[in-house]
Structure formats: structure tokens, C-alpha cells
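Ticket #264: bound-state structure for D-malate.
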Amino acid sequence: MTVELNHSSWTFRDLGSGVPVVWIHGFPLSSRLFDPQLPIPGVRHVLPDLPGFGESADPSRAMTIDAYAEGVLDVMDRAGARTAVIAGLSMGGYIAFAVARRAMERLCGLMLLDTRETPDTPEGRQGRLDSIETVRREGTTPIIDAMLPKMLTEETLKGNPDLVERARRIMESSSPAGVIAALEAMAGRPDSSELLPAIEVPTLVVTGREDTITPPADAERMRSAIPGAELLILDEAAHLSSFERAGEFNRAATRFLGRVQPRR
Ligand code: MLT
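RESOLUTION: The complex was predicted; output attached.
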């Protein structure tokens, strides 16, 4: 379904029935990243493509992490989901924090995948600005070429060409305008550290043991700051841990989601 929201048109898929889970993808990816999660039983999967990614048209204005969060809440409204589990991977996690900050009452659970609560360092921010210049000059290919080797483990990169190709195709569905808007939004994102102790819904923190972008130390720090949070570290997985180790992730997510109560 494609919906016109106040700052862009968003395409989202709404599949299955059960506990609503809104899956928010990372950068530069699309909701197809979560196709391996569709077999999780008892779940209504709401899968938006952020503007300029996957099937969604380019953003019609500059984006911030809060603007994406506003879009996610609008998608929930259009889907008729008053509350949902918000599952965000990496940039999707930054957006999940912004959704929680704006409207904790719309959450009935949180899954934080390969993400972190801290903002960019000054060097990180400069790297985003350099990447924006690269995209303006050369398009998205150099960004994809630089990021793909960090998304999956070396073993997968060498031994599982099908999975690597799938990841690349998902990344190639990102438009230059979408990538630039997301880089600007991530560079300007706020620190979510103070939010963590105030998270009042069941939370599962997940990361790949070989994730070098948001390593296990980030996940452990978030777990210890969020009341009652659980931590899952997936072996033989890098940054796209739920994609690379879908079987193990889906088993843990099924157990976690089985304990979530939709809020009234
Ligand atoms: C992502 O996967 O969304 C990005 O690696 C996040 C980031 O660059 O901070």
C-alpha cells in the first residue's frame, strides 16, 4: 500500500495476523531486509520502506530522524495499529528510539537490532558529509561498495554468494535522494541515552557477534540501561544479523513476541 503522508509518499506492506510488529530497516536498505522474518508465526508484519528506499518515492523535503518517526506513527495509523512492537535495525533503531520518545504509549514492545543509542562522533558526522558529496558526484554505488563488506561476515561474503547478492540488490533499490536524506538525518540525530531507563515495554536487544558498525559492547550497554531488557548475541553474524542468521533470530523473536501483550 502507498500512502501520502505530510512529507512524502510511503509504501508499506501489511502481512499476516497477530501481534503487530513494525519492522524499520537500516541504511541503505529496504523492508526486504526483513523478508526472512515473515515466517515468524502469530505476527502482523507492517513493513514500511523509508522515503527513497525500496518501493517508496523520494522524500519531498529534508529528513530528520524525528520526521521518519512521525512517518512510522502515520503508517501505524493508516494500518489501524494503535500499538505495535517496533523493531528497528541500525538506522531503524535510531528511528525506533525517536518513536518511543514521541509516543511510548504506541509501543507494546521494542526490538533493537544492531543499533546504538549514542549520536555520531564529530568524525562520524564528517564521514556522513563526505558520503553526501560522493553520492552527489558518483551516485550510490561507492556507498554500497563500501558498506556491503561490513554488513555480512567474511565467511558469508566468501561462501554464500546468494545471500550477498540479495543484500546487494536490496541496497541497490536505494535512490541517491533517499541516501542523502538519510545521511543528513543520521548525522543530526540526538543522543537517546537518557531515554533508555524510561523504556517501559519489553525489549529485546540483538546484535551480531561480528558486527563492527554497532558491536556487541553497544548492545550490552543498551541492555544494562533498559529495565528488564534481554540480550541476544548471534554468532557468525555481522551487522545484518537478523538477515544473516534468520533461523536463530526468528526462534528468539518468536519466544520474545509470545510474551508481548498488545496494549489497549
Ligand atoms: C545502518 O545499517 O543503518 C547504518 O550502518 C547506520 C549508520 O550508518 O549509523
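RESOLUTION NOTES: The CA atoms of residues 21 and 197 lie 22 Å apart.
TICKET STATUS: resolved
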